[in-house]
């Protein structure tokens, strides 16, 4: 029997090591940006070979749960502007380089989850949520109107001031204050026409074509932590996802 297979099972042993490592990270044993113990120490801890341990870490790297730094070790992935720009932010100017957006918070309120939102967030109908509206500017112009829905149970005591005074990305805030690490997102895109309110905020005519993006942000075990609806003025911007940087 291969040393990488669990006794009496067909599942590779490294998958169990990966699961246990993920549980330890999710449980806060190692915080964002912190180095994991050496491979030899982890292999000893889980009583597996170095090769099995490395296979487990390879999958965690591929899923962006951890990152390797040559000569320094393996670290719990930390959200920052670079990670946001290349993994989660896909709106780029048709001419020029990708830019980090300037965000203006237009609304922040407590509400109750609608049935569809509750289902997507795995909440009970009517459970408490935050509703946040942001207007994102690129090259000095309003380009993206974001409406976010967050479960209040996951983000207790979140305030508008926390959002508007943060010195990093919103996903960095989730991670550092609440221990919620957004690992990936699921998105659906379609073309829509601007209603009067969106047209006014984005500086376009009512009925102008917009790109609508529905995103669900996911953490460990694909648990949903945020819903986001974005309306994008694509007159001078494109949706661009470079999988080679993912």
Explain what the structure shows:
The protein is α+β, with helices and mostly antiparallel strands and 246 residues long. It folds into 2 domains: 13-76, Winged helix-like DNA-binding domain superfamily/Winged helix DNA-binding domain (Arc Repressor Mutant, subunit A, Orthogonal Bundle); 81-245, Chorismate lyase-like (Chorismate lyase), CATH 3.40.1410. The protein contains 8 helices and 10 strands. It has helices at 13-26, 39-46, 50-62, 81-87, 115-121, 160-164, 170-178, 196-202; strands spanning 66-69, 73-76, 91-93, 102-112, 128-138, 141-151, 184-193, 209-218, 224-232, 237-239. The strands form 3 sheets. A 6-stranded antiparallel β-sheet has the order 4-5-6-9-8-7. It has a two-stranded antiparallel ribbon with strand order 1-2. A hairpin with a 3-residue loop joins strand 1 and strand 2. The chain is globular, with a radius of gyration of 21 Å. The model is unreliable at 5-9 (pLDDT under 50).
- Level-2 CATH architecture of the largest domain: 3-Layer(aba) Sandwich
Mean pLDDT rating = 87
Count of structural domains: 2
Number of helices: 8
Given helix and strand content, the structural type is alpha+beta
CATH topology of the largest domain: Chorismate lyase
List the secondary-structure elements in sequence, H or E.
HHHEEHEEHEEHHEHEEE
